[in-house]
Design brief:
With about 250 residues, the chain is α/β, with parallel strands linked by helices. It has one domain: Purple Acid Phosphatase, chain A, domain 2, CATH 3.60.21.10. The protein is about 30% helix and about 20% strand. The strands form two sheets. Strands 3-2-1-11-12-9 form a six-stranded mixed sheet, with helices on one face. A six-stranded mixed sheet has the order 4-5-6-10-7-8, covered by helices on one side. Strand 5, helix 7 and strand 6 form a beta-alpha-beta unit. The longest helix is centred in the middle third of the chain and has 13 residues, at about 80-90.
Length: about 250
């Protein structure tokens, strides 16, 4: 079984189209959330995600933009994130808003005991898993062979073996071409892995990120693919969203 693992599209239609065009063959889609927010094409992206089917976990921006998030929590967003959420609420069709509002909170287990899908962390969908101690606690408490998460917009992961968590990340040679990096899923190891952000990477690489998880071959392949970022930037500015949301797409920050 091969799964296309995507996360944090954030209404970036050109990036999503590039990912779907570049992705090798897969059996189903595992979407780790934050379909909307920040970008200028929430309806087109949501409709395309719905047509893909598969596993979809809700993200914090999906809650915010569909009206599920309490206003007190929405006010904790950054100024740009808040502005984008309010704009997206008004831009979404009623059908897409309702669909987003009913997305399930993770964890979701597409493969029993072998793979878990979450947005932030298994116990807290809004938690950012950046640091060793936080990751160690999650891997210590989980029985999943591999936990797939988004939220950080960083394409990297952690390997757990004999009580120790070790950082793992892809190595790429370019910032302009499509590339991939294979991570073997080793016996007796467990993993926490982020496929990276499709629509708003923040790891210093502007290219759209995704992954293929191959359960039969016991490997995960990270990908980066260039896309028409200037179109995404132009659309963001065209609908009146903050310029900073357009600028950061090319910076990958």
């Amino acid at each position: 079984m091969r799964a296309l693992v995507i996360s944090d599209i954030h209404s970036n239609l050109p990036a999503l189209d590039a990912v779907l065009s570049a992705a090798p063959s897969y059996d189903e889609v595992w979407n780790l959330g934050d379909i909307v927010g920040y970008g200028a094409n929430p309806n087109e992206v949501t409709s395309k995600v719905r047509s893909l089917g598969g596993i979809v976990v809700r993200g914090n921006h999906d809650r915010a933009c569909s009206g599920v998030m309490a206003r007190s929590k929405l006010l904790n967003f950054s100024r740009d994130a808040y502005s984008a959420a309010i704009w997206t609420q008004s831009a979404l069709s009623e059908d897409n808003r309702e669909w987003l509002s009913k997305l399930p909170c993770g964890p979701i287990w597409p493969l029993k005991r072998r793979a878990m899908c979450v947005h932030g962390a298994p116990g807290n969908e809004d938690e950012y898993l950046f640091f060793h101690d936080d990751v160690w606690a999650v891997l210590c408490d989980s029985a999943a062979r591999i936990i797939l998460h988004g939220h950080t917009h960083w394409q990297r992961g952690w390997s757990w073996y004999q009580g120790e968590a070790t950082a793992v990340e892809p190595t790429f040679q370019s910032k302009t071409e499509m590339e991939c990096f294979e991570l073997p899923i080793r016996t007796r190891h467990r993993y926490l892995i982020n496929p990276g952000s499709v629509g708003q990477p923040r790891d210093g690489d502007w290219r759209a990120a995704f992954a293929i998880y191959d359960d039969e071959q016991s490997k995960l392949i990270w990908y980066r693919v260039p896309y028409k970022v200037h179109i995404a930037q132009r659309r963001i500015r065209g609908v009146g969203l903050p310029d900073s949301l357009a600028d950061r797409l090319k910076e990958g920050r």
